[in-house]
Design a protein that fits this description.
11 helices, 3 domains, 19% strand, five-stranded parallel β-sheet, seven-stranded mixed β-sheet, alpha/beta, 384 residues
């Protein structure tokens, strides 16, 4: 029995289950669109898991005839992968492997299809050079991380990055340019759309030196509904994990408050008091936020980010209560990128104390002052 004998109703159902995309694992190519010319046409092939004849790839004397028109035995595929499974590498594509591909693809489409219209979220991407390394943030990776809780509201992201910058974060010019550029991009691309109620939720993906991430969060504030994502190295991606659910941060207060407050985030690595004293002197009143074993990969779940936001709001009030309304908080961050943005977002512009944010730069011998964020940050933030 030939492929053409598959009833039209079965073909339509298969297209729907596959969402018109190649079901080969990792491909997902749209089969209605030429990627080069953008011309729209049907380029799909329908492949059999068990061949429609006993002599075909993975054929069976009995099942080939029984399953020739059965949707459970059919895959929607691009030309490349159709040839691969039926001609180039039949042995490497067993019935079990192909069934697994089909099931995984169709389950993913089902989950995405169940997302309601109220789950639309605009993707916001921000990257800046870390040392001499560029920090690209991918829209496609962001879209994967959002599902199934949200889906992209637009086919293009709101991109704030300064492209092809040649400046490195060891130069004062870097902080000046990036600060000004970030503020300008938000004023041009995001804030007008928020004021016009065009955007109701943001999904934030940012990878940059931590002072800029704190500034980004402070400029955004927590007024627009948003979720901030964390880049994980193993396995690589931005998608939140389910664990851990119970998490507390360790917060220590200074015994004496004669000097200015220094807020140390020792989360991604240990930050010794001596490194703060080198910058602020011995009288600095050090407040510390840490975990039992600081390391780069500890932040895995939404619950950890939520616990951070809750505890930091209380901590900022506590610092202001002990040091007074006219104090300036010196921030020494060693923290995950998502928490740097979240720390900026939890600030109340008119109520919280101004910040001076430092960046650790080994080429410059330790922590260096980078950005000042005032209570009226939208007008007065500046590079140091």
């Amino acid at each position: 029995m030939s492929i053409s004998a598959i009833p039209e109703s079965v073909k339509i159902r298969l297209w729907g289950k596959a969402a018109g995309r190649c079901q080969y694992e990792g491909c997902n190519k749209p089969l209605w669109l030429d990627s080069l010319t953008k011309f729209e046409y049907n380029s799909a092939y329908i492949a059999h898991i068990i061949a429609d004849s006993p002599d075909g790839p993975r054929g069976d004397a009995i099942l080939s005839r029984q399953l020739a028109q059965d949707i459970t035995n059919l895959l929607l595929m691009c030309d490349e992968h159709h040839r691969l499974i039926d001609k180039v590498d039949v042995v490497g594509h067993s019935v079990e492997r192909l069934k697994s591909m089909k099931a995984a693809h169709e389950e993913r489409i089902r989950i995405l299809g169940d997302i309601g219209v109220d789950k639309r979220s605009h993707v916001l991407l921000y990257g800046a050079n870390i040392g001499s390394q560029n920090s690209p943030v991918s829209y496609s990776e962001a879209a994967v991380a959002m599902a199934p809780d949200h889906y992209p509201a637009d086919s293009r992201a709101i991109t704030l990055s300064l492209r092809n910058s040649s400046f490195e974060d060891r130069t004062p010019k870097f902080w000046e340019i990036e600060t000004e550029h970030l503020r300008n991009m938000l004023n041009q691309q995001l804030f007008p759309r928020l004021r016009n109620a065009e955007i109701f939720h943001l999904s934030i993906f940012a990878l940059a030196p931590q002072p800029l991430l704190i500034l980004l969060g402070s400029l955004l504030s927590d007024i627009p509904a948003a979720e901030v994502f964390q880049l994980h190295r193993e396995p690589r991606g931005w998608k939140w994990l389910d664990e851990p659910t119970d998490f507390d941060y360790l917060i220590s207060e200074p015994s004496q408050i004669d000097g200015d407050p220094a807020l140390v985030f020792a989360l991604s690595s240990t930050v010794n008091d001596d490194r703060v004293h080198e910058v602020m002197g011995r009288r600095a009143a050090i407040w510390r936020v840490t975990i039992p074993f600081p390391h780069n990969e500890f932040l895995e779940s939404r619950q950890q980010a939520q616990a951070f936001r809750t505890q930091m709001r209380a901590l900022m009030d506590r610092i202001k209560s002990r040091h007074g309304e006219n104090s300036l908080i010196h921030v020494f961050p060693s923290m995950p990128v998502a928490l740097a943005v979240e720390f900026g977002r939890i600030r109340t512009p008119k109520a919280d104390l101004p910040l001076v944010v430092y960046d650790e730069n080994r080429q410059l011998g330790g922590f260096v002052k980078t950005i000042e964020i005032s209570p009226l940050h939208s007008h007065r933030e500046k590079a140091c």
